[in-house]
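#struct-pred

JT: dropping the chains for the assembly here, can someone run the whole complex?
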Amino acid sequence: MSLGPHLLLALLEGTVGALTLALTALGLSLVFGVMRIVNVAHGEFFMLGAVVTWYVSTTTGSYLLALLAAPLIAGAGAVLADRLVLRRIGYDPESTIVATIGLLYILQQAVLTTYGPYARPVAPPIYFRVGFPWFGYSGYKLVVAGVAALLLATTWLALGRTRLGLYMRATQQDREIAQAFAVPVNRVYTVAFGVGSALAAVAGALVVPIQQAHYLMGLDALLLSFVVVILGGLGSLRGTLVAALLVGLSDGVVSVLFSPTLAKIVATLMVALVLAIRGRGLFGEAAA
Amino acid sequence: MTKGSRTGVLALHVAALALLAGAQFLLPAFHHGMLARIMVLAAYAVGYNVLLGYTGLMSLGHAMFFAAGMYGTGLTIHHLGFGVGAGFVTGAVSGLAAAALVGLITLRTTGPAFLIVTLMLAQAFYLATLYFNTLTGGDQGFILTGLRVDLAGLRLPLTQPAVKYNVALAVFAACLLASLWITRSPVGRVLAAVRENEERTRLLGYDTARYRLLAILVSGLLSGVAGSAYTLLFSYVGSTFAGILYSIYPLLWTLLGGAGTVLGPLVGTLLMTYIVDIASDFTTGYLFVVGAALVVMILWAPAGIVGGIRARWVAWLP
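RK: done, full complex below.
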């Protein structure tokens, strides 16, 4: 294959990756924006989504059911973690980080013990090929990109147009004033943590037919999400989306043309460069 | 620190070191080897504590400094035929250089961005050790052979248990005393002020960014020294030590022992290494123990062991 078609393939891969990455990173960004905490276990909810999808779709044979179950189960797990641990430490930033690191290893080990060290695939629910003159491309990947884009738009609209979205934005801007205006801040926190983790789980569920489910897959997702939220600027959802598209595309292109490992290194160095020039990322708030 | 004279504090730490020195004559072989490993890892935790405990910066990427020390020593000995001494110096310098890089990049970040960026950079370093596997051996790593130090006409192989134990003790003692000295020096006071309230410290006229950079450099140097010593004593270099788990371990050890206490890192490392060792006799899921320990500690004992002792009984403990 000559360079032109090769690049087209790389861009297609990049777009699919970028949209699922945007979904994962949006979850992380939402949790940080509303609750001012960093969820180090975020990648594990991505992994949980993938593993639940494998379980549900192999036992029931329905991928669609799995796609619904994954965010629900992961979200429920997140709500439980919020109630049992995070609320009790008062969402103190440093304690929360330590607690979510603990959660990361607990989830990873739990999956390793029950699911095993295998990388297991799930058959794509729809199978068709899009024929290009130079190569055929999996239609399912394009569907994934479409669904991810749809979910991103839905989340965006929900944040802007619904009462819950209003509560979240109010809490993000000023927790105490929001509380004074009768926003149930504690409940908003729980919901934000649940929804943020569920978004990662959906992304995990969407990529299982492409990537296979494995207990360590959360680490790459976490790393890329971190890269994205730092590049976009902590706390800015718009920044997260823009950065996810940039990082996802570059990751896809470098992965196809060179190697996935190199792609992650390049993405990180890119962010390091941006940070050295502009400490708060592309769209970040001024230092508080 | 109202009571407790300078000599009292010094006596306590020298006594702790003397206890470690004496233990080698009493311990059975297995625990003898275990304690040698723990002392090197505790030196790493001491380096971590300079940043977390005394400057208030939480890093999730210290494995990069530890591994920089490791590769700095291992690669030069393996590929360039360096001796033990020269390899050790390159290891320490590599740790320092990695810290300088991270310090300069994170200089403009505050709060949560700092730990995210440290994790990110360390992960990139880890991936780089895998990517350049022709040089580093990647996951498999490589083994060093025939390491020995020549001291006063004696040829001491580093694989010999007694040599291993005493070199580990020397490295740990050097790191511990360095950390004690820094925390009690005027610079250490400024670092503590940065931890308590960076804004106010800046208003008092201190260039807090410079002090933060200094703390990162010291922390990186000590971590690099520990990594280098680990390679020399256990004759192995591998990318596992650059992975995220080895960034989490010093955090866990320091918190368990008590962040911001000089002896805390040793107590935490000692306890946790034995807990993991005992747990792996019963279950392969030792990571579960690590995770649960973190959650339990943050819920019920956030000050750690030595921190708890200080709060309740011995207020002058540094």
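JT: nice. The two ends of chain A are 51 Å apart (CA to CA). The longest strand of chain A covers residues 129-131.
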